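Section 3.1: Structural characterization of target chains.
Under the original work plan, the team committed to producing a structural model for every single-chain target entering the pipeline before any wet-lab resources were allocated. The record below documents one such target. The sequence was received from the expression subgroup and is listed exactly as submitted; it comprises 355 residues.
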Amino acid sequence: MATWSKIKQYTEDGTLETMQAPLIVSVSRSTDIPAFYSDWFFYRLQKGYSVWTNPFNGVKSYISFAKTRFIVFWSKNPLPLLPYLHLLRERNIKCYIQYTLNDYEQEKLENTPSLAIRISTFQKLVRQLGKGAVIWRFDPMILTKDISIDKLLRKVENIGDQLKEYTEKLVFSYADIAIYKKVKHNLEQAGTSYIEWGECEMEEFAKKLAEMNVARGWNFRLATCGERIDLSKYGIEHNRCIDGDLITRLAYEDKALMDFMKVKIEQVPGPTLFGNTELPEGAILLPHNHYFISSHKKDRGQREFCECMASKDIGEYNTCPHLCEYCYANATKQLALKNWKAHQETPQSETITGR
């Protein structure tokens, strides 16, 4: 896990506090900040800090944005981000978006805008940020008595055809239900007859998805998030949601960030005597005749099969009003709504909930 530098910084009430000052900020694995808390986040960014509550011990810590150079957003409805993206450009902060775009409308497993609106939002974001900066997640893949593997693939196909020119990658995971008691309880309360994924079903889905990727001409990079199973024989890799290589591709001109990540940007050498340009093994090309060698390092503080690099997440659990039936981040819907109401009463507080 990264050890961020610490700085002394004044809070709004004039108190001098010691704050963590991360260069890479995750917004957020724990809740949908873009959908519900964009106003709060950009207000806190302007103020220069926010306060994060540790979900395990309740201890609060100050997070300074004074050194922030890159943000990874996570959302099922990032439409509220659109009016604010210019503020990131003005501060020379780059970003990309992990956009979870599922289709469980018929089954009513999610509380999100219509699929058509969410696809339109995806396309609008790509027009502002670029194709590589908006990543499609269909996450999680859920089987029920009404959703077979083939029906799930048809859902993916429908969205994939509309995003064909708008993204480079499709990330997915298989729903783990039994191991999350609250998820199991919520699905059962909603009357959803879920089916656990077995390895054979995972293999069948992966094979058919890879074949579809070629047949439909998508040519997406396919990746699983946090999955143990090895699907490399289908060309499916283990994902890096906080991806050092993608961050480099999008922000390679930011020397402070590259120095922090220990990435060295090199000039592509000229032709050899045989007329070919020779690049080192593993070189990743950049614009303007440059390249770099990956120095991505896994955050040891994450799950065993998570390949993310270190970042500082600023979200809080039990605060997401999407109220998805399979949600792992809310203990109960009632608690999430209670905290959402608390936020609305103090929308510019140092913490999301105002507590």
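DSSP finds ten helices and 17 strands in the chain.
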